[in-house]
Amino acid sequence: MGKDALPKNWPAGIPYLSGPSYAPHITKSQYQVAKTKTLDLVTEIPRDFPRGPSSLVRIVPIRDPSHPADGQAGLFATKHLSPGSLILPYYGLAHSSVPPHSLAHEQSDYDLWLDRDAGLAVDAEKAGNEARFVNDFRGVATRPNCEFRECWDLRRGERCMAVFVLPAGKNGIKKAVVGIGKGEELLVSYGKGFWGKRRHEGEGEGEGEDRGIYEGHNP
């Protein structure tokens, strides 16, 4: 992919993905899980949803000492985003979360579950798209304004994770509050598992709680 096809402020040395990548060790059964739509998988990415760099968001370096990601980067809306709307898929390396293959991803802050029962996860640490820059809301806002959600990609015929604007009325968001405004940072909740793990690592007490579905923080 040429430089002109990369989002502005994309980090050097990190491959940009316009679709998921699969680790060589993924088993046939795990790949089949990724390619199977279950009855509870009702959220879909439309066939006409644009591929490649998103026009809805931009990567912005953060230069604010009060921001937890100061010196790193965040993802910001380039236009108003409606409540409940799809922002972009979360791409990375789909891999097995079963040892020994999971060992290479234990320290990653970009790892999300695709299917816990199948031992299938996706890690955007070393390759991904703009979604890897979504920060946690803690220390930035009173609540998140978007969320990771499992969905079915009609374009590829496979399951994936994606970033959606929180619906009105969810997580304390009042119905009068409509989506995410232009220029606002996209913020999710990484979940208690992520912060519990980081807290215990800082205290030298091991890995802490089992990681939840939300993991991720840009370097």
UniProtKB/TrEMBL annotation:
| Protein name in the entry | Uncharacterized protein
Organism, per UniProt? Answer: Hypoxylon rubiginosum
What lineage does UniProt assign to this protein's organism?
Answer: Eukaryota, Fungi, Dikarya, Ascomycota, Pezizomycotina
